[in-house]
Amino acid sequence: MSRRKPSVLPTTPVPGPKVWRSLDEKRLSLEEVAVEAATEQAVLLDAADLKKRPAAEEATLSRRNFLFAGGATGAAVSLGACIRRPEAYFAPYAQAPEELTPGTPLRFATVLDRNGDVFPVEVETHGARPTKVEGNAAHPWSRGATNLYAQGAVLDLYDPDRLQSVRSQKDARGETGPAAVEKAREQLATWGIEARRGEGRGLGIMLPPVASPAVVSLIKRIKASLPQALIVRFAPLHDESVLEGTKVAFGARRRPVYSLEEARVLVSFGADLVGDEWAGVRSTKGISQSRRLGSAKDTPPRLYVVESDFSLTGAYADHRLARSDASALSVLLALAAALERHLDESLGLSEVPEGLALDPEAAAWVPLLAEDLAANKGRTLVATGRRLPAWAHALAARINEALGNIGKVVSYLGATGVEALDEVATTATVSKSDVDAVKRWVFLDTDPLASSALGSVIGDALNEADVEGFALSFHATATSEKCDWAVPLSHDFEAWGDALLPDGAYAVRQPLIEPLWSSLSLVEGLAALAGVTEHPRNIVWAESQRLLQVPLGGDALWRKLLARGVVYVPLVKPELAVDAAAVAKSIAAGSAKLAGREANGSLDAVFVADPRMISAQSANNPWLLELPHPMTKVSWSNPVSIGVADAQRLGLSDGDIVNVTRGAVSVEAAVAVCPGVAKGSVALSMGWALAPKGRYGSGHGFNFTPLRESDLSWCTRVVLEPTGLRRKLARTQTQNTMEGRPIAIDATLDEYRKTPNFPAWRSVEFSTGPLWKEIEYKGHRWGMVIDLNACTGCNTCTVACQAENNIPVVGEKEIARGRDMSWIRIDRYFVGDDENQPGVALQPVGCQHCEIAPCENVCPVNATVHSPEGTNDMAYNRCIGTRYCMNNCPYKVRRFNYLDWHGRDAGNDGVPETKKMQFNPDVTVRMRGVMEKCSYCIQRVEAGKKRAKLDKRPLADGDITPACAQACPAEAIVFGDLNDPRSRVARQAAVDRRYKLLAELGTKPRTSYLGRIRHVNPALVKPKSQDAAHTSRGLITPQALKRKQEGRA
Amino acid sequence: MGASYVNAEAGETELLPDVSSINQVTESVCRVTEQPAPKGWWMLFVPSLALLGLLIACIGYLVTVGTGTWGNNSPVAWAWDITNFVWWIGIGHAGTLISAVLFLFRQKWRTSINRFAEAMTIFAVMCAGIYPALHTGRPWFDYYMFPLPNQMQMWPNFKSPLMWDIFAVSTYFTISLLFWYTGLIPDLATLRDRSKNTFRRAVYGFFALGWRGSNRHWQHYERAYLILAAISTPLVLSVHSIVSFDFATSVIYGWHTTIFPPYFVAGAVFSGFALVMTLLLVTRSVFKLYDLVTLKHLELMNKFILGTAWLVGYAYAMEFFVAWYSGNEYEQFVFLNNRLNPFEAPYWWSYWAMVICNVIIPQVYWWKRMRTSIPVMFVVSIFVNIGMWFERFVIIVTSLHRDFLPSAWGVFHPTWVDICMYLGTFGLFMSAFLLFIRWIPMIAIAEVKMVLPFAQPQHAPAVVLSEELQDAHAQKTALAAG
Fold first, then answer.
1. Residue A877 C-alpha, separation from nearest chain B C-alpha, in angstroms
2. What single-letter DSSP state applies at residue B359?
């Protein structure tokens, strides 16, 4: 806007008027003109003097100035109101890198390692951003499947609240950048050098028990040069008792490696085989293989579980006995005693004290179990969970040996990694004086202050003026806050490393992305301490060469190893004979303690792994935080799980806040009533509230660590005192029973054999003919079959789907309102009459892709329509959000963006930039007001078709796998073309126990289910409640039918 | 009007016994628009305007932040929004019924209340329209629902009952507005003729469309009115039938039932009459219209309320019968558990509130004393309105919150936006309504005059009819003399 100058009169006197109206006027004397001009000038001078005038007079504003000022203000306001987008520039490739086609993702093999539990993975990267984790199909422990931890790992990488800067003094501001990290590395190196002068005295190193040979070599090097240094391995969820037990049995720390596909009868004592137990994916793969029955002729294995909490394995079991961990030990001993008689072989129970009485139900179990095990010698398994003491593991090994299972169903193979090192102490063996001797602490990826029973001792030590601390930490943790140095830890996707499994499967970890923030990896940290200056890549390279015993001279072999991600290295085959005498001694010592226990009104609190928070790195991971617990269905929290009987006895109900007290220590936590938690026990799940500064994790969940007596203690006596406060639990499912409806349909094996198509009798197909000519699907006809007998309910599909499809998180408040967004959810129903020991029916439910979809005809804008291949597609751009489709969906699988979920980001303002990097560019990020739902991963379908077309070949079965099916460790979800008779899905759809959910509505869903088969032991089924014990109102048995008829009559 | 003076029987003169002259009608109706508003009007108008402001604020918040500001969730994707929509639409029905159906049935008593009820229809449909327009997640794309040719080649889905809704409601609104306006024309002309200032005369004159009361005008007018009445009559049935299709055509039990169209229509008439009653009682006393709206009118309306109460009660019972007779466990669960069972269902109280308000309370009208007691009818009309709101809430929310898969069950809780928006629609309704009674003849002057005995041909023109008729009479006399 140009400002016109106000017309200023000339300041010099003019000779005369140029314009005149009359002759008189023209005749005006020059003097008069001069006088007039002088007056004008005086006015102008006054105007120039304005500033000197009093303010009151300024108020007179000329019209011109007013308009000028008003216009300027208006312009400024409207400019300010415009959203000025931040300037960003594309940096086009001057020379495009090879192998990189924009829009085509690349996949790299790498390996994740959570405290020694190894997950070989393949990571999809878009434009060098890791976006999705898949299992490494080449790795026999994964075969392409993953678990929750692996699925969530990619979001951990982009966690906006990771430790991002190096802090070299307490309370100092952090510095970012490579120089700061270099300084930290130098500091570690200096500590290493200085420690070497005193043989390492005064230096303490704490690290997680990773299974990395490179780390092991570095520790050995450090120990060699610093023999007096205190090196401690620490993980809150550890398998020390397993390792100790196998050490008793075999003389060395061994890992039981299961091949469950071989097993016919399995007995688990608190071992969450298909859940969070070590190598859970491998075990799930194994057991599900024999549970995916092709026909009624197949026999599934029979799984007995004795446990105190309600684990996934408990839900998977054919028979489950809910007993406290102590009672489980009594059952184990009684079973061993019964087996001694069956096998006519001593299992070393001679010195077991008398008086370990069993309750009648458990006592009835034992002989039947023993009979079952003895009858299937060589094809059975007795598994003991990490919570049981070492002697129980030793006894289990002895039983397995006596049953001839070793080498077939279970192999006890030498532990690898840090946990195999004798020179490394555990937090349980470290005493206060050991801690006091340490003047310099190096915490590598460990947070003892928040998650170790030793935490308070170490915390006190760090308070001393002469004790220095150095924390290499993923988040700002309780420990890193207390240390002088807090240095960011690299994520596994940013670092070099490796992992070795006991059977010799060796995987190399390669970085997939430059560290988002300058950081150090575990290997780099240890190398600095050891005085090794080599690049971590070279350290790993050297380690690979050593293990493979092949010179990796050329680049080709190394690249091949990196590309494949896994190779088998020759390991010494360990001796598999159990030292029976040592086992007997250990049993005698251990069981003696068992006899002295008594209850005094308190409860057994067992510390259990939370399947969602397996790694502390996930403590701020919104996908996993929002994921409901598989049994309690509580999201965003880990309340104390308590059984129905105890809750009634204590007058507790869902959401009550209690003080969980052990002696002087007390933790305030909410309570969730979970049918099936053993009477007298409460389950405290670990791993929550470990990222105090995380925007997602902080303020959610409870940290029960203070209640732990030592890190070896898995069970303690606590008292629950109601505080009178309540808190609404954010549950994704509030109804626990099926209400007698044919939903998750099951039968016993006998019933199945009598009526192989039993589910079709319950979920009856719509029998009225069509009113109009039905569409024929001549090309592809996509469909999905979900085998309920294989599904463990682990929720991995839910998170995999979330990662693949850019599904937002909504936050605790919105979950409590019933606005969860998961496209595939696991429905959990309790079945049976006994509230204290119910069965469980699990059912993954996503969009069923009905051929006659009720959602489609009600949409006024055609936003949800059928594709020629029969999938029910969403056109997000068209959707205006009437939600009519959601109402009319009988399966309630449609999800609505009630608010701008991504923008809100679970209650935070705006999506963090790093989190945006995870988005899958092949899938739309939905805005608010739009309906969304499972698409059968249509982007993968189209990509698979495109690939086949480019390769000029017909689409083969298996070319397309949706994220859920790919992630499923139980291979319960099968997807494919129903029109291709040889496809896996078509064969699954032909299995006799197939049914369609709510078939009677006539929606003709494309997803169908295979009914669950409970391989019950007929002797264990009470005839009185045969149908009730297994299926509640969920199954028509002769008894149930009879009762029903009687009831009607 | 043709309907009015065909049967000039003795019975009809009793309709308005306190009206002693034709001019009295003109006076008492026009007076309201010509004199300063009474205190009572202001006492109602100011809070109404405040509520209207609340509505506008809520709408602003809703559109800016999202549908999630309401309490809707999964499985209850529709809750107060559609409840309020159906409720308001239902209220509108009385207007059309009174003006069109009763007109066709020659119910002369309707003339005192039809204008009033028609206005109510229009404002109620306006309130109702807010909800379907704003319940969408992206209301700025609502136009996708209109069949507008566009470059994106998008076309609405005519199979969707929501589409039928759009046509049904917009047709209904248009016809109601036309019908109302057509009826207004002679009265607007009266106001024009009585105007004492130019502005007033210009405005009323503009809307009176040059009405001169000539014979030809009257003939055209009555023909138009009759045609519009004939068009409106099926709309009374169609609109709420179509609204009920939103539910009846779905697969959700509690919605999926064939009884819905007549059930909804009966309910709509029921609630509409109740709201007419509530408003009429207030207006009648504020503007002292006792001679035009007599106790006889009110009693007749109460009889209607009693009749429709039985109709909805029958429908409620029928739903249970069908649920039992169908043998469908899901349907039985919806009725026996979700609605009836106070021990298991979280919304049992809403069902019982509905039954008590809609079926039990109107039974007091079996007694004439109750039918003719002003306080009783005021209270009952309020109860019926509450009950009918609960009916829609019961149908929508209790059917949705526990449907097929128990895993997906959930409970809906309204938020403050839900509540404020509902209150806000009252602000819109009342503001519009109060402006209407203040500036527009709220009773159909011309029509009322036609049912007066003096208007009948057998009456000697002892009483001066109206100015127009007076002129006509003078002309006639002059002609006869000439």
1. 10
2. I
Cα–Cα dist A758/A746, whole Å: 8
Per the CB < 8 A criterion, the answer to whether A377 and A404 are in contact is: yes
> Using alpha carbons only, what angle is made at residue B30 by residues B29 and B33, rounded to the nearest 5 degrees?
110
Residues of A in contact with B162 (CB under 8 A): 858-860, 882, 884
B73–A739 CB contact, under 8 Å: no
Identify the closest residue of chain A to B159 by CA–CA distance: A857
**Tokens coding A814:** 């919105």
Q: Which helix (H) or strand (E) holds B12?
A: helix B10-13
- Using CA atoms, how far residue A453 sits from A457, A706, B344, in Å, is 8, 6, 45
Ranges of each domain in chain B: 25-316+418-481
Tell me the pTM.
Answer: 0.87
Q: Could you give the angle at the alpha carbon of A636 between the alpha carbons of A632 and A640, nearest 5°?
A: 45
B404 contact residues in A (CB cutoff 8 A): 741, 890-892, 998, 1001
ipTM given for this complex: 0.89
Burial letters A493-508, b for 16+ CB under 10 A, else e: bbbbbbbbbbbbbbbb
Tell me the HSE value of A870 on the side-chain side, using a 13 A CA sphere: 25
Chain B interface includes A882 (CB < 8 A): yes
Secondary structure (DSSP) of B126-180: HHHHHHHHHSSS-GGGGGGGS----TT-----TTSHHHHHHHHHHHHHHHHHHHH
Q: Is A735 within 8 Å of B407 when comparing Cβ atoms?
A: yes
pLDDT at residue B451, as a whole number = 79
Other Cβ atoms less than 10 A from the Cβ of A966: the count is 24
Whether A860 and B67 lie within 8 Å, measured CB to CB: no
Interface contact A883, partner B, CB < 8 A: yes
Is B138 within 8 Å of A930 when comparing Cβ atoms? Answer: yes
Asked if the Cβ–Cβ distance from B333 to A738 is below 8 Å, we say: no
Could you tell me which chain B residue has the CA closest to the CA of A858? Answer: B160
DSSP A406: B
Query: Residue B370 burial (CB < 10 Å; 0-12/13-18/19+)?
Result: middle
Given CB atoms, is A875 within the 8 Å cutoff of chain B? no
- Interface touch B75/A818, C-beta < 8 Å: yes
Asked if B137 lies within 8 A of A829 by C-beta distance, the reply is no
Tell me which residue of A500, A526, A498, A523 sits closest to A416, measured CA to CA.
A500
Quick one: pLDDT band at residue B5, thresholds 50, 70, 90? very low
Asked whether the beta carbons of residue A859 and residue B160 sit closer than 8 angstroms, the reply is yes
Distance CA A960, CA A941 (A): 6
Residues 6+ apart with CB under 8 A from A618: A149, A152, A153, A156, A612, A624, A687
**To probe the interface with B, which of A817, A1000, A1048 has the most B CB atoms within 10 Å?**
A817
Mean pLDDT in order along chain A per 10 residues (1049 residues): 51 55 63 60 53 51 82 77 64 73 87 90 90 90 89 93 89 85 92 89 92 94 91 91 92 91 94 90 92 91 94 94 90 91 84 77 91 92 93 93 92 90 88 90 93 90 90 92 92 93 91 91 93 91 88 80 88 83 88 67 88 90 94 93 92 92 92 92 92 89 91 89 91 89 92 91 82 87 95 94 94 92 94 87 95 92 92 93 94 94 84 89 92 94 94 92 94 94 94 92 92 91 50 42 48
In which element (H, E) is residue A818 found?
none
Determine whether the interchain pair B333/A739 forms a contact, defined as Cβ–Cβ distance below 8 Å: yes
Please write the tens of the pLDDT for every residue from B318-360.
999 999 998 888 999 999 888 888 888 899 999 999 999 999 9
Q: What are the Cα distances from residue B24, in Å, to A829, B20, B32, B441?
A: 74, 7, 13, 14
Cβ-nearest to A899 among B66, B71, B412:
B66
For residue A62, the model assigns a pLDDT of 80
Chain A segment 968-997 residues within 8 A of B by beta carbon are 997
